[in-house]
Amino acid sequence: MKKKILALGSLTLLSVTLFVMNLCHSTPKKVKAIQNFDKDKFLGNWYEIARLDFVFEKNLNNTTAKYSLNKDGSLKVINRGFNFIKNKYVAATGKVKFVGDSNTGKLKVSFFGPFYSGYTIIALDSDYKYALMAGRSLKNLWFLSRDKTMPQNIKQEYLKTAQDLGYNTSQLIWVQHN
Q1: For the Lipocalin/cytosolic fatty-acid binding domain, which residue ranges apply (predicted)?
Q2: Cβ(51)–Cβ(64) under 8 Å?
């Protein structure tokens, strides 16, 4: 009886692990990753222009992401922002890996050891100045720019893309950079 319970427990743990691993690579149904992605052009500083808020960025302004290359070919990201409630800057360093080949903008990031969450680059201009990124659900979305602002025509294009994919863009937080 103990062996059956142990086997069932192991099978349950394996099932939960596989389910969680699948979640970290998942994206909403209609979301498609960009192709012909050049990770070297993507490196450097990005300003967060807008986001759908979530717990790790709550009460943050002046949010940025800085991408650099690790020796193993993965990327390092340092997300930084100013918590206007606590009146201090906070930062988190993560490791970004590609899901599949590095020419596709489908990624996963870990800020907590072996636990990864998927995100996908769904729009990126040819000069790598503006990016639209989706998380693993319709509750995660980011507009990024190399500058503290984004041209209105790019904002409108990204808003339409996000709305067409099912995102509730009325809930976007437009980040202040001061």
Answers
A1: 38-176
A2: no
Q: The CATH number of the domain where 169 resides is what? A: 2.40.128.20
Q: Is 61 left (phi over 0), alpha (psi -120 to 50) or beta?
A: beta
Closest of 5, 81, 73 to residue 47, by C-alpha: 81
- DSSP code, position 114: T
Query: Would the CA dihedral through 27, 98, 160, 170 be positive or negative?
Result: positive
Residue 97 belongs to domain spanning: 2-174
Q: What's this model's pTM, rounded to 2 decimal places?
A: 0.84
* Residue 67: closest CA among 40, 49, 48, 90: 40
| Alpha-carbon gap, residue 144 to 20, rounded angstroms | 27
pLDDT by residue (tens digit) across 113-137?
889 999 999 999 999 999 999 998 9
Query: 149 with 166: CB under 8 angstroms?
Result: no
